[in-house]
Design goal:
1027 residues; mainly alpha; four-stranded antiparallel sheet; three-stranded antiparallel sheet; 40 helices; 58% helix; globular; disordered C terminus
Length: 1027
């Protein structure tokens, strides 16, 4: 039983009260001294390039300025991703504005006109003398009618066999005889004299209880009614509206993306991420086995096993070479016998005798100078166009190749058809160098991985490489850096606390820290022993940080020998980066994988260690775990649908007493299911983000985008399909078990009724979840509690500064709302204005947060839109499939008329994606050339030091150590320690002197009281009155 009109009204009023209360609280909180920094941190954070404007200090003074904020202002303050996000919200507003007008005007009156709900109530549920079977008890008074059923929605018992087949009928006839105890059907009157009537043993009473909300749905339209043509026509109109909006917003998204790329000045736009570097054994199968399975084995077992594996690999390589040689000889002999057709191509490989180990490596894509000179002369004389292609690269002839080179011989290409025979033969011989063999040989010659990568790109882009940063395994170094940063923050807070108390002339009690020496190794045991002791916190922080500095610098040197197969290559020109990221670097695509680099501030350095086979296996494992988790989540979804079945709950003794109370039943059906569903979904984004990191994604934006995809997919399967199927068939389970063939008619009747559940779910999101999420109550409580404990302005500022927003947590809520609104816009048009309300409230809350609260973690330049585009396309497909199914279940021929829409949508999706996809992936050469020209114009404004610092942007943070900041902090700590020790000494002498001496001593010490340490870098705190 879905929520009825009364339940929907109670839920609507309840949620409206929550929304009004939230906005009233926010109106006061944003102006209070306690919360104003929490609710508008960008107004009070120093160092921001662009700050939002001041809002009026009135209760509703924030609402209108936020709505009037232009897109340019939002772009200036919050960035391209924020503009794209608000455009997605605007897409929802525009879509459901049109659908509210169209569907409520065209579909709602049609649904109200139908009588199907009432006919189901009268025909299916009312007992009668002809079709209703209950074996009557022995009658006490024949005039007394049978007792009414206990619950709405009559449930008859399973009848016995009505007829017996004996005796046999005469030949050519069929007859039946009533079984014992079966009352004969009474005569129907003279007008039915020509009819023969018998009991239908397959008929069952429908377990259906209608309410006044059902008359608004498509279920109220009679089966096979001509009114269903209006629903068919509206399906086409709704699809056309979505096509138009998708094209419009895709075009605008591409324009925004191009603007981002044209303004993408800086090191990121000139840097490429290179993965799967050959020659680096980190991440290979042998390396993983050696560091995992073989690691636990003793050396006496591990070494022979490793040798055995190496011999197996060598035997495999020799077999491959021998097989390749035999195939090559056969093909060569066949070519000698059969003339090659002009323009065709065949490739023959000659296995090397041995892979090169040391010595020089043959130059790849090099040609004999005499042959090349002759060819160029021939081309110039005959004016033959020189065409460069992927398979026409010319390399050293086979006789000049080293013994370890693979040789390939292509036949004549069309562009070389007019070459002399001797030149054509030379060009047929192509040498392809195995990238692993080449890289291993270079490393064995003494080159480091850094030098090898630099040499590779110097050959490909001569004079255009600015910096190369190889990524290292930072597992050990990261632990030291985390401890250093934690102690640094503690020391800064402690010095600030002492300084503040000193400035206010308050007594200072030196903080003590309990230290266990064994926790810090030999250094801790030598200094503090093995038992926990209390030591002065200031001295401990200072000494431990100095020790960590030594360990970090020492570990940084060791880390240079722990290269992983990834590197960042920064070019001097944007054109070079564009070419590198859009071309295939090597024919062996398992190596030298190049892509555009993410922002250096969002790189997940630990995930750059994985090779392609590890990333692929992690991808499969994570998605497998995702679908398993989705299956388990279906269990609470089915339970939630059971909550809205009052008849089922009434059978439970605990609920039987209270379930019939009007308010209780309304809350159970209209409020509780959606609320429980939101609670189950609350922790999901954090789980999905963790899975994204396990998957091996290289940047925070990639993890966030993976959450968007997985969260939408999860809600599509569980919230939508799970709730829809459970709501459509769970309440009719008995009917389906008794008569499985009735599934089609059951779908046509009950599926549109399920829309009432989704209507209450969107109502909850629009009027309760979104406003409450706007308050961020949990973060506000933590801020209030921790701000009471924080002793310094620096510590308090960390509680409200740099609040971040993760699109993966909120964007799927919008796309699932678009899905639900689209699918049920014709089945239940009331859902359209509720979706419109949802996006209108979201506009005010999210735009305020983007302007005044959230600091972006990354800037992708509008890459949110492609993910949303495909989710809207999937919603459109689902809407059309459901309309085909529902119209078919209604017995209408209009379902076949809707089928072509599926093909139209598929064509539209591919055409639109094909036009607008490419600019989201790569920078065009035109943009790159324009940016290079602009860089040349500004060349004099960029100093060499700034250029050098840009080159270090993609050096891992753990490999950087700010000596200046460290020495400055140590000097402040030493100065504070000296002041505190000096005051203690003065206080000890004062106890021994008389009052006059103590007074003079205090006067002498007073000039040292107003200690003010020098300003440290990174402090971004302002006063309460800052603007």
């Amino acid at each position: 039983m879905a929520a009825d009109g009364r339940g929907f009204g109670i839920a609507l009023g309840f949620y409206c009260v929550i929304a009004v209360a939230v906005f009233i609280f926010f109106g006061f909180a944003r102006m209070s001294n306690l919360c104003k920094k929490f609710y508008a941190p960008k107004r009070f954070t120093r160092g921001l390039k662009h700050k939002p404007k001041r809002l009026p200090l009135s209760f509703w003074g924030w609402l209108l300025p936020v709505y009037k904020t232009t897109e340019e202002e939002l772009l200036r303050i919050a960035g391209f991703d924020a503009v794209t996000y608000m455009r997605i919200v605007s897409f929802g507003i525009e879509l459901f504005f049109y659908l509210t007008i169209l569907c409520c005007a065209a579909i709602l009156p049609v649904n109200l006109v139908g009588k199907q709900v009432y006919s189901m109530t009268a025909d299916m549920l009312q007992p009668n003398n002809y079709t209703y079977w209950i074996p009557p008890p022995p009658p006490i008074n024949p005039a007394v009618p049978p007792p009414p059923p206990e619950t709405p929605g009559v449930q008859g018992i399973n009848p016995p066999n009505f007829y017996v087949p004996t005796p046999p009928a005469p030949p050519g006839l069929l007859w039946w005889k009533y079984a014992d105890g079966v009352p004969p059907i009474p005569p129907l009157g003279p007008e039915f004299a020509g009819y023969g009537v018998k009991y239908d043993p397959d008929w069952r009473p429908k377990n259906y209880v209608p309410n006044n909300m059902d008359t608004l749905t498509m279920s109220n339209v009679d089966n096979k009614s001509n009114l269903l043509w209006i629903h068919c026509l509206m399906t086409y109109i709704v699809s056309l509206v979505v096509y138009n909006l998708l094209w419009k917003y895709s075009k605008a998204a591409v324009a925004l993306r191009l603007r981002f790329l044209q303004q993408a000045e800086g090191v990121q736009a000139r840097t490429a991420l290179v993965q799967d570097i050959p020659g680096v054994h980190f991440g290979t199968l042998m390396h993983r086995a050696d560091t995992t399975v073989l690691r636990v084995l003793p050396g006496i077992v591990k070494e022979p096993l490793k040798k055995t594996v190496s011999r197996v690999v060598d035997v495999g390589n020799k077999g491959l070479k021998a097989t390749t040689g035999r195939i090559n000889n056969a093909l060569v002999s066949r070519e000698d016998q059969q003339p090659q057709r002009k323009g065709s191509e065949s490739m023959f490989f000659e296995a090397p005798e041995a892979l090169p180990s040391r010595g020089s490596i043959p130059s790849v894509h090099a040609v004999d100078p005499q042959i090349e000179a002759a060819r160029q002369e021939l081309i110039e004389s005959q004016q033959i166009p020189l065409v460069h292609g992927g398979t026409t690269s010319v390399v050293a002839p086979s006789d000049a190749a080293s013994p370890g080179a693979w040789k390939a011989r292509p036949t004549e290409e069309p562009e070389f058809a007019n070459d002399p025979p001797e030149l054509a033969a030379a060009f047929r011989s192509v040498t392809e160098q195995d990238p692993w063999a080449k890289a291993e040989a270079l490393l064995e010659d003494g080159l480091t991985v850094q030098q090898m990568v630099e040499q590779e790109y110097a050959e490909l882009f001569p004079g255009e490489v600015e910096a190369v940063h190889v990524v290292y395994d930072l597992a050990d170094l990261n632990g030291l850096c985390k401890e250093y940063e934690k102690l640094k923050r503690n020391l800064e807070d402690l010095v600030d606390d002492y300084t503040s108390k000193k400035r206010r002339h308050k007594p200072i009690k030196r903080k003590q820290e309990r230290v266990a020496g064994v926790k810090y190794g030999a250094w801790g045991r030598d200094r503090y022993g093995v038992k926990p002791v209390k030591v002065d916190a200031l001295e401990f922080y200072r000494d431990r940080m100095n020790e960590l500095r030594r360990l970090i610098l020492q570990e940084q040197k060791r880390t240079k020998d722990k290269s992983v197969p990834s590197a960042f290559v920064t070019f001097k020109k944007y054109v070079s980066q564009t070419k590198a990221t859009t071309c295939t670097q090597h024919h062996d695509t398992s190596t030298w994988k190049v892509s555009a680099a993410p922002g250096h501030e969002e790189v997940i350095w630990g995930n750059l260690r994985w090779r392609q086979w590890e990333r692929s296996s992690r991808f499969v494992a994570v998605w497998g775990a995702f679908f398993v988790m989705t299956a388990f989540y279906l269990i609470p979804i089915i339970f939630i649908q059971g909550l809205i079945n009052i008849d089922q709950l009434r059978k439970v003794h605990v609920f039987a007493v209270i379930i019939d109370l009007p308010v209780v039943s309304s809350i159970v059906t209209a409020i509780l299911p959606g609320l429980v569903l939101k609670i189950f979904l609350a922790v999901l984004p954090m789980i999905l983000a963790f899975m994204g990191r396990l998957q091996g994604l290289e940047s925070k934006s990639s993890v966030d985008f993976s959450v968007i995809t997985k969260y939408y997919t999860f809600q599509f399967i569980t919230v939508f399909l799970g709730s829809f199927l459970a709501g459509s068939f769970l309440n009719q389970a008995k009917e389906l078990l008794n008569n499985p063939t009735s599934i089609v008619s059951t779908l046509g009747t009950s599926a549109p009724l399920t829309s009432v559940f989704f209507l209450t779910f969107i109502e909850l999101n629009a009027l309760a979840a979104t406003p409450v999420g706007f308050l961020r109550i949990v973060q506000l409580v933590l801020f209030w509690l921790l701000s009471r404990i924080a002793a310094t302005e620096r510590a308090k500022a960390r509680l409200w500064q740099h609040q971040t927003m993760k699109y993966g947590e909120i964007l799927p809520q919008h796309t699932i709302t678009i899905l639900l609104g689209l699918v049920f816009c014709i089945m239940n048009p009331i859902i359209c204005p509720m979706c419109l309300i949802y996006f209108l409230i979201t506009t005010s809350t999210e735009k305020y947060n983007l302007l005044y609260v959230y600091t972006p973690e990354y800037e992708s330049g509008g890459e949110l839109w492609p993910a949303v585009y495909w989710q809207v396309i999937s919603a459109l497909f689902t809407f059309q499939l459901f309309m085909i199914g529902i119209l078919g279940a209604k017995g209408s021929y209009t379902s076949s008329v809707v089928v072509p829409l599926l093909f139209i949508t598929a064509i539209f999706a591919q055409v639109c994606s094909g036009i607008f996809k490419r600019p989201f992936e790569v920078m065009s050469l035109r943009n790159a050339v324009d940016l290079d020209k602009h860089e040349q114009e500004l060349a004099g404004l960029v100093t060499e030091d700034e250029r050098r610092e840009e080159g270090k942007a993609y050096l891992a943070p753990a490999l950087k150590f700010d000596e200046e900041a460290h020495e400055q902090l140590m000097a402040e700590a030493q100065q504070m320690d000296s002041v505190l020790k000096g005051e203690q000494a003065v206080a000890a002498e004062a106890d021994e002197d008389d009052d006059e001496d103590r007074a003079s001593t205090a006067d002498a010490a007073s000039p040292r009281a107003p200690l003010r340490p020098p300003q440290r870098r990174g402090l971004a705190v302002t006063g309460d009155n800052a603007v």
